[in-house]
Design a protein that fits this description.
By secondary structure, the protein is mostly beta strands. The chain has four helices and 25 strands. The protein has a six-stranded antiparallel beta sheet with strand order 20-25-21-22-23-24. Strand 6 and strand 7 form a beta hairpin.
Length: 283
Protein backbone atom coordinates (compact mmCIF):
# COMPACT_ATOMS: atom_id res chain seq x y z
CA UNK A 1 0.00 0.00 0.00
CA UNK A 2 1.41 3.39 -1.00
CA UNK A 3 2.15 5.63 1.96
CA UNK A 4 2.09 9.41 1.85
CA UNK A 5 4.92 10.22 -0.58
CA UNK A 6 5.47 13.29 -2.73
CA UNK A 7 5.30 12.40 -6.42
CA UNK A 8 7.75 15.26 -7.12
CA UNK A 9 10.46 13.53 -5.09
CA UNK A 10 9.52 9.86 -5.18
CA UNK A 11 9.30 7.80 -8.37
CA UNK A 12 6.43 5.36 -8.09
CA UNK A 13 3.64 4.10 -10.35
CA UNK A 14 1.53 0.94 -10.15
CA UNK A 15 3.71 -0.72 -12.80
CA UNK A 16 7.12 0.58 -11.77
CA UNK A 17 8.93 2.27 -8.90
CA UNK A 18 12.35 3.33 -7.70
CA UNK A 19 14.16 0.42 -6.02
CA UNK A 20 14.80 2.73 -3.04
CA UNK A 21 11.05 2.66 -2.35
CA UNK A 22 10.69 -1.11 -2.18
CA UNK A 23 8.74 -1.95 0.95
CA UNK A 24 7.19 1.54 1.05
CA UNK A 25 5.00 1.37 -2.05
CA UNK A 26 3.30 -1.29 -4.14
CA UNK A 27 4.52 -1.69 -7.70
CA UNK A 28 4.76 -4.53 -10.21
CA UNK A 29 8.49 -3.93 -10.59
CA UNK A 30 11.29 -2.02 -8.88
CA UNK A 31 14.37 -0.70 -10.71
CA UNK A 32 17.46 1.23 -9.65
CA UNK A 33 17.49 3.34 -12.81
CA UNK A 34 20.19 3.93 -15.40
CA UNK A 35 22.46 7.00 -15.42
CA UNK A 36 22.18 9.66 -18.12
CA UNK A 37 23.06 13.33 -18.67
CA UNK A 38 21.18 16.25 -20.11
CA UNK A 39 22.64 17.06 -23.56
CA UNK A 40 20.66 20.21 -24.40
CA UNK A 41 20.97 23.68 -22.82
CA UNK A 42 17.67 23.42 -20.90
CA UNK A 43 15.43 20.37 -20.50
CA UNK A 44 11.87 20.94 -19.21
CA UNK A 45 10.65 18.31 -16.73
CA UNK A 46 6.91 17.56 -16.72
CA UNK A 47 4.59 15.63 -14.38
CA UNK A 48 3.36 13.45 -17.27
CA UNK A 49 4.66 12.27 -20.66
CA UNK A 50 2.75 14.97 -22.52
CA UNK A 51 4.25 18.08 -24.12
CA UNK A 52 0.97 19.91 -23.57
CA UNK A 53 1.43 19.70 -19.79
CA UNK A 54 3.04 22.60 -17.94
CA UNK A 55 6.55 22.14 -16.64
CA UNK A 56 7.45 21.48 -13.01
CA UNK A 57 11.11 22.42 -13.31
CA UNK A 58 14.08 22.39 -15.67
CA UNK A 59 17.37 20.52 -15.85
CA UNK A 60 20.53 22.08 -17.25
CA UNK A 61 23.16 20.91 -19.69
CA UNK A 62 25.37 18.24 -18.15
CA UNK A 63 23.23 17.57 -15.08
CA UNK A 64 22.68 13.90 -14.33
CA UNK A 65 19.55 11.82 -13.86
CA UNK A 66 18.53 8.25 -13.25
CA UNK A 67 16.24 6.86 -15.93
CA UNK A 68 13.58 4.46 -14.68
CA UNK A 69 11.61 3.98 -17.88
CA UNK A 70 11.56 4.89 -21.58
CA UNK A 71 8.30 4.69 -23.50
CA UNK A 72 6.58 6.60 -26.27
CA UNK A 73 9.56 8.86 -26.80
CA UNK A 74 9.65 9.97 -23.15
CA UNK A 75 11.95 9.08 -20.28
CA UNK A 76 10.81 8.94 -16.66
CA UNK A 77 13.69 10.25 -14.57
CA UNK A 78 14.86 11.43 -11.17
CA UNK A 79 17.32 14.34 -11.10
CA UNK A 80 20.48 13.74 -9.10
CA UNK A 81 20.83 17.46 -8.30
CA UNK A 82 17.65 17.83 -6.21
CA UNK A 83 15.78 14.52 -6.49
CA UNK A 84 12.99 15.90 -8.67
CA UNK A 85 11.00 13.28 -10.60
CA UNK A 86 9.31 13.76 -13.95
CA UNK A 87 9.16 13.12 -17.66
CA UNK A 88 11.16 14.55 -20.54
CA UNK A 89 11.72 13.62 -24.19
CA UNK A 90 14.38 10.90 -24.25
CA UNK A 91 16.18 12.70 -27.08
CA UNK A 92 17.33 15.24 -24.46
CA UNK A 93 19.40 12.54 -22.74
CA UNK A 94 22.75 11.03 -23.51
CA UNK A 95 26.04 9.94 -21.98
CA UNK A 96 28.56 12.63 -22.96
CA UNK A 97 31.98 12.92 -21.38
CA UNK A 98 32.31 13.79 -17.70
CA UNK A 99 32.01 17.58 -17.31
CA UNK A 100 35.11 19.49 -16.27
CA UNK A 101 33.66 23.02 -15.96
CA UNK A 102 30.39 24.80 -15.33
CA UNK A 103 29.00 28.14 -16.45
CA UNK A 104 29.22 30.80 -13.74
CA UNK A 105 27.48 33.76 -15.42
CA UNK A 106 23.72 34.03 -16.01
CA UNK A 107 24.05 33.30 -19.75
CA UNK A 108 26.81 32.65 -22.27
CA UNK A 109 27.12 31.66 -25.93
CA UNK A 110 28.70 28.60 -27.51
CA UNK A 111 30.59 29.65 -30.66
CA UNK A 112 31.62 27.25 -33.44
CA UNK A 113 35.23 28.26 -32.83
CA UNK A 114 37.25 30.63 -30.69
CA UNK A 115 35.83 33.69 -32.40
CA UNK A 116 33.11 35.90 -30.93
CA UNK A 117 32.26 37.27 -34.39
CA UNK A 118 30.92 33.87 -35.43
CA UNK A 119 27.21 33.09 -35.20
CA UNK A 120 26.66 31.23 -31.88
CA UNK A 121 25.66 27.59 -32.01
CA UNK A 122 23.78 27.69 -28.71
CA UNK A 123 23.39 29.58 -25.44
CA UNK A 124 23.97 28.11 -21.98
CA UNK A 125 22.67 29.07 -18.55
CA UNK A 126 24.53 29.49 -15.33
CA UNK A 127 24.98 26.06 -13.77
CA UNK A 128 25.40 24.23 -17.08
CA UNK A 129 28.13 21.58 -17.08
CA UNK A 130 30.55 21.39 -20.00
CA UNK A 131 33.61 19.33 -20.94
CA UNK A 132 36.64 21.46 -21.74
CA UNK A 133 39.53 19.92 -23.68
CA UNK A 134 41.70 22.96 -24.24
CA UNK A 135 41.97 26.73 -24.53
CA UNK A 136 42.56 29.23 -27.30
CA UNK A 137 42.97 32.97 -27.59
CA UNK A 138 41.68 35.33 -30.27
CA UNK A 139 42.52 39.05 -30.17
CA UNK A 140 43.19 38.86 -26.43
CA UNK A 141 39.99 36.97 -25.53
CA UNK A 142 40.46 33.53 -23.99
CA UNK A 143 38.11 30.67 -24.89
CA UNK A 144 37.47 27.23 -23.46
CA UNK A 145 37.32 24.62 -26.24
CA UNK A 146 34.63 21.99 -25.79
CA UNK A 147 34.86 18.24 -26.31
CA UNK A 148 31.78 18.19 -28.53
CA UNK A 149 32.90 21.16 -30.60
CA UNK A 150 32.59 24.86 -30.07
CA UNK A 151 34.03 27.37 -27.65
CA UNK A 152 32.84 29.50 -24.75
CA UNK A 153 34.36 32.60 -23.20
CA UNK A 154 36.87 31.30 -20.63
CA UNK A 155 35.98 33.83 -17.94
CA UNK A 156 32.36 32.68 -18.12
CA UNK A 157 33.16 29.27 -16.64
CA UNK A 158 35.14 27.63 -13.85
CA UNK A 159 36.08 24.07 -12.91
CA UNK A 160 33.01 22.10 -11.81
CA UNK A 161 32.21 22.77 -8.18
CA UNK A 162 34.37 25.88 -7.90
CA UNK A 163 31.99 28.33 -6.28
CA UNK A 164 31.51 31.94 -7.30
CA UNK A 165 31.76 33.21 -3.72
CA UNK A 166 30.02 32.84 -0.38
CA UNK A 167 27.14 35.29 -0.86
CA UNK A 168 24.28 33.68 -2.78
CA UNK A 169 22.39 37.00 -2.82
CA UNK A 170 25.10 38.48 -5.03
CA UNK A 171 24.51 35.62 -7.46
CA UNK A 172 20.75 36.15 -7.37
CA UNK A 173 21.26 39.84 -8.13
CA UNK A 174 22.93 38.98 -11.45
CA UNK A 175 19.54 37.63 -12.61
CA UNK A 176 17.83 41.03 -12.27
CA UNK A 177 15.39 41.57 -15.17
CA UNK A 178 15.55 37.90 -16.18
CA UNK A 179 12.07 36.92 -17.44
CA UNK A 180 9.76 35.12 -15.02
CA UNK A 181 8.94 31.57 -16.13
CA UNK A 182 6.74 29.17 -14.19
CA UNK A 183 8.96 26.15 -13.53
CA UNK A 184 11.99 27.98 -14.90
CA UNK A 185 15.41 27.27 -13.45
CA UNK A 186 17.79 28.95 -15.87
CA UNK A 187 19.19 32.28 -16.96
CA UNK A 188 16.66 32.34 -19.80
CA UNK A 189 13.61 32.22 -17.53
CA UNK A 190 13.27 31.51 -13.83
CA UNK A 191 10.66 31.27 -11.09
CA UNK A 192 10.82 32.35 -7.47
CA UNK A 193 12.12 29.12 -5.96
CA UNK A 194 14.33 28.45 -8.98
CA UNK A 195 16.11 31.74 -8.28
CA UNK A 196 16.77 30.66 -4.69
CA UNK A 197 17.93 27.17 -5.63
CA UNK A 198 20.17 28.09 -8.56
CA UNK A 199 21.81 31.00 -6.71
CA UNK A 200 22.56 28.81 -3.70
CA UNK A 201 23.90 26.02 -5.88
CA UNK A 202 26.51 28.38 -7.31
CA UNK A 203 27.93 29.09 -3.85
CA UNK A 204 27.99 25.41 -2.91
CA UNK A 205 24.73 25.22 -0.97
CA UNK A 206 22.00 22.69 -1.74
CA UNK A 207 18.40 23.91 -1.57
CA UNK A 208 15.11 22.14 -2.29
CA UNK A 209 13.40 23.01 -5.57
CA UNK A 210 9.90 24.30 -4.77
CA UNK A 211 8.84 27.07 -2.39
CA UNK A 212 6.81 24.74 -0.16
CA UNK A 213 9.91 22.56 0.25
CA UNK A 214 12.09 25.60 0.93
CA UNK A 215 9.63 26.77 3.58
CA UNK A 216 11.06 24.09 5.87
CA UNK A 217 14.66 24.90 5.00
CA UNK A 218 17.01 26.54 7.49
CA UNK A 219 15.84 28.25 10.67
CA UNK A 220 12.60 30.08 11.36
CA UNK A 221 13.03 33.74 12.34
CA UNK A 222 10.79 36.71 13.15
CA UNK A 223 10.15 39.48 10.65
CA UNK A 224 12.08 42.01 12.72
CA UNK A 225 15.16 39.77 12.47
CA UNK A 226 15.29 39.87 8.66
CA UNK A 227 18.67 40.58 7.09
CA UNK A 228 20.46 39.98 3.80
CA UNK A 229 20.00 36.42 2.56
CA UNK A 230 16.90 35.60 4.56
CA UNK A 231 13.81 34.23 2.81
CA UNK A 232 10.23 35.50 2.96
CA UNK A 233 7.44 33.05 2.14
CA UNK A 234 3.87 33.40 0.98
CA UNK A 235 1.62 30.54 -0.07
CA UNK A 236 3.29 29.43 -3.29
CA UNK A 237 5.93 32.16 -3.36
CA UNK A 238 9.35 33.01 -1.95
CA UNK A 239 11.61 36.07 -2.09
CA UNK A 240 15.18 36.85 -1.03
CA UNK A 241 16.03 39.76 1.24
CA UNK A 242 18.80 41.96 -0.23
CA UNK A 243 18.87 43.91 3.03
CA UNK A 244 16.47 44.64 5.89
CA UNK A 245 14.02 46.45 3.58
CA UNK A 246 14.39 45.20 0.00
CA UNK A 247 13.07 41.96 -1.48
CA UNK A 248 14.50 40.37 -4.63
CA UNK A 249 12.18 37.88 -6.28
CA UNK A 250 11.13 36.34 -9.58
CA UNK A 251 7.46 37.22 -9.77
CA UNK A 252 4.43 37.20 -12.02
CA UNK A 253 3.62 40.86 -11.29
CA UNK A 254 6.61 42.32 -13.13
CA UNK A 255 7.16 39.02 -15.03
CA UNK A 256 10.82 39.30 -14.13
CA UNK A 257 13.36 39.10 -11.34
CA UNK A 258 12.80 42.44 -9.62
CA UNK A 259 13.55 44.41 -6.47
CA UNK A 260 10.68 45.58 -4.30
CA UNK A 261 10.31 47.22 -0.92
CA UNK A 262 9.20 44.45 1.45
CA UNK A 263 6.37 46.44 3.01
CA UNK A 264 5.09 47.35 -0.46
CA UNK A 265 5.34 43.74 -1.58
CA UNK A 266 3.39 42.50 1.44
CA UNK A 267 0.67 45.06 0.74
CA UNK A 268 0.53 44.28 -2.99
CA UNK A 269 0.62 40.50 -2.65
CA UNK A 270 -1.83 40.43 0.26
CA UNK A 271 -5.04 40.74 -1.75
CA UNK A 272 -4.29 37.49 -3.58
CA UNK A 273 -2.06 35.42 -1.29
CA UNK A 274 -2.69 36.96 2.13
CA UNK A 275 0.16 37.76 4.53
CA UNK A 276 3.56 36.05 4.50
CA UNK A 277 3.45 32.54 5.91
CA UNK A 278 6.94 32.65 7.37
CA UNK A 279 10.49 33.95 7.42
CA UNK A 280 13.55 31.70 7.26
CA UNK A 281 17.31 32.01 7.53
CA UNK A 282 18.61 29.36 5.11
CA UNK A 283 22.36 29.48 5.75
Amino acid sequence: MTINLDRRLHAFRPDLADAALEGQVEAARFVAGEPARIIVPVAPLRPAPDLARGIDTELLMGETVRVFDRAGGFAWVKADQDGYVGYLPETLLGLPQEPTHWVTVPRTFVYPQAELRQVPMAALSMGSRITVTGEAETRGTRYCLLADGGAVIARHCRPVGEVVGADYVSVAQTFAETPYLWGGRSGFGIDCSGLVQLSMMMVGKAAPRDSDMQAGFGTEIAREELRRGDLVFWKGHVGIMENEETLLHANGHTMSVARENLDAAIERIGWLYDRPTGYRRPL
